[in-house]
Hints:
Blueprint: H1 8-29, H2 37-65
Helix pairs in contact: 1-2
Amino acid sequence: MKRHGFEPASLVMGLVLLGLAAVFLLDAAGGWDPSRPLTVALAAGGLACAAVTSVISRLVRRRQRGDTGPAA
């Protein structure tokens, strides 16, 4: 397998998706109703956290490379 760099946004997104999977498993077991507004807020918040993590990691990597121009 080809080695690749660590992507923190992928980790955050994976954890968000695992959390959503847990919500739907609880729904199947009768322990949680995914139509609650809290579920939508948690999903949206998780997506926002992944987006912020992606932007921060891109800025950090760009600064480490010494780029000052626009991102490609």
